[in-house]
User: Fold this.
Amino acid sequence: MKIDPTRDLVLDRLLKAPPALVWRCWTEPALICQWFCPKPWFVSQAVVDLRAGGRFFTLMNGPAGEKVPNEGAFLEVVPQRKLVFTDILGEDFAPMEPAASGGAGLGFAAILTFDPDGSGTRYRAVARHRTPQEARAHDAMGFHSGWGMAADQLEALVATL
Assistant:
């Protein structure tokens, strides 16, 4: 996949877990709730309809009682290898207005790959935005630190599975 540095934000990590376990953490709602956003934030609800057009939803909760719903849909599902989802479309590819669900409305597609690498997983998350301005806004919100902390939490969780 070609990366556009003006629109794409990339997190690339080697995780100490096989792709099957990393996949579980991304596709089982109870597991998503344990790692998905950087602490002290947490996810209280997750919905995963694991099919193209299926709903992907998280309700993130902040330490001061903030609630940020994130509504979206899966675009591509390749078991244990790749997930692609977006907050631009809802379930069954229904177009959504930015932040229609009251969420962040960052306007991006996430392209996640889980490639075997020795006994671990080369985990790559690409956040592909519609415009360079949206990419810069997501970067300024803390994409690298936030997704990085979440990846650390994901790796800690898979060590317990």
